[in-house]
Amino acid sequence: MATPQALHHALLRPCVLHILRAAGYHSTRSSVLDTITDLAARYMYILAQSTAAHADLNHADLDITISDVRMAMQDCGALMPEKAIEEQEFYGEEDMRGVEGFLAWAMGEGNKEIRRIALADGGEDYLTALKKKHNTTDEDSRYHGTLLGRPAEPRIVKVEGGEITSVKEWADRMKPIPKQIEETPSTREASSALSSVGDQVMENMEF
Length: 207
Fold this sequence. Notes:
This protein has 207 residues and is mainly alpha-helical. The protein has a domain at 2-134: Orthogonal Bundle (Histone, subunit A). The chain is built from nine helices and no strands.
């Protein structure tokens, strides 16, 4: 039985082949293809880790937003070039060159060529065609809840043997409680109060 890592590598390999073919490459060695596939997998893994980290810092729930993905892409160098945050805040203008460049690539001719090559045979991607080839019943139920099929409905994982009853409740308790900063009088108020006390002392002193 193939390991999850080998399965993911096998699924990503044809995608890398389509990208290389769209870029103008017509042949490559198997070792080179495996290396590029491994680099692509590692990059996506780092991107997913960074997205999860930003989601954990930005909001209390477990859902990932587009802002989390964008910040992760900035960390991984996918949205370049970009000015420093301090410079953007100083001029009061957000630098959108990285986002605009990424959108131009995603909607441009380069990505269009990748999609054309990937969907060349009958307008279906290779994975859908492969599933239809090996599935004689034309049913997707055998892949339901797996990596190759529709995701299963989310179920609450119950925890027994303690006061915490679910994973979500445990995650909520693990969230750090924000510290409340007590309001203190400003320096000007404190200095004025000290000045008034000093004036009273000076009036009561005998010279």
